[in-house]
Amino acid sequence: xxxxxNDADAFDRxxxxxxxxxxxxxxxxxxxSLYSMDGDFAPLADLxxxxxxxxxxxxxxxxxxxxxxxxxxxxxxxxxxxxxDHVLTLHTCGKALGADGAxxxxxxxxxxxxxxxARGFIFSTAPSxxxxxxxxxxxxxxxxxxxxxxxxxxxxxxxxxxxxPLGAQCHGSPILPLILGEDGRTMAMAGRLxxxxxxxxxxxxxxxPEGTSRLRIVITRNARAGDIGALAAALAEAFVCGG
Length: 243
Known about the structure:
The chain folds into two domains: 8-143, Type I PLP-dependent aspartate aminotransferase-like (Major domain) (Aspartate Aminotransferase, domain 2, 3-Layer(aba) Sandwich); 147-240, Aspartate Aminotransferase, domain 1 (Alpha-Beta Complex), CATH 3.90.1150. It contains eight helices and seven strands; from the N terminus they run αβαβββααααβαββα. The two termini are 38 Å apart. It is an alpha/beta fold.
């Protein structure tokens, strides 16, 4: 069932109501640690407590947090400390790791089950040893990359200062959406920014809810201070031009 976004109490009530209605079995709580379209964070500590209270499986997609947050870039769940066998995390090998594939981390029983029963794993071509070596190298860079994360956070602060006055939502993550609402306006603005040399994509339904079409701005370490300032200037000009 669906619950209100980032509302740990709503998860608690939903599971309690499900149990009261006579349901049996194990509930699952599935969230992203860092949401890809809004750039906000899930209340992981509160959700982990709800999962433990109800003996639920807690699945966290760390796609946008891997390499960026947590000790050694291991993601936001790692900041919670030791975890029980009920916690599963998914880490894409794309994005920060710059490779392909994904890693699913969890207890031995989960790994054994997937190896023996998961059709998508069993009836699939295995990744090449080269891909595995690239991922292993990327993980090593992340583990030793505290200086890279400090540098990224400085760029995020510069982006917040430059883009928040123009309407970008800043939750402290590299994803800064600027919600424009109307589809046509959003895609026209994205086109103007792309023509100016910025890889800014317009996002519209069904990827996001109706009426919330947006420019999805993502800051990486490829963005220099001058690039961020130039983006802010181009965005302000696009607004003036009737974007």
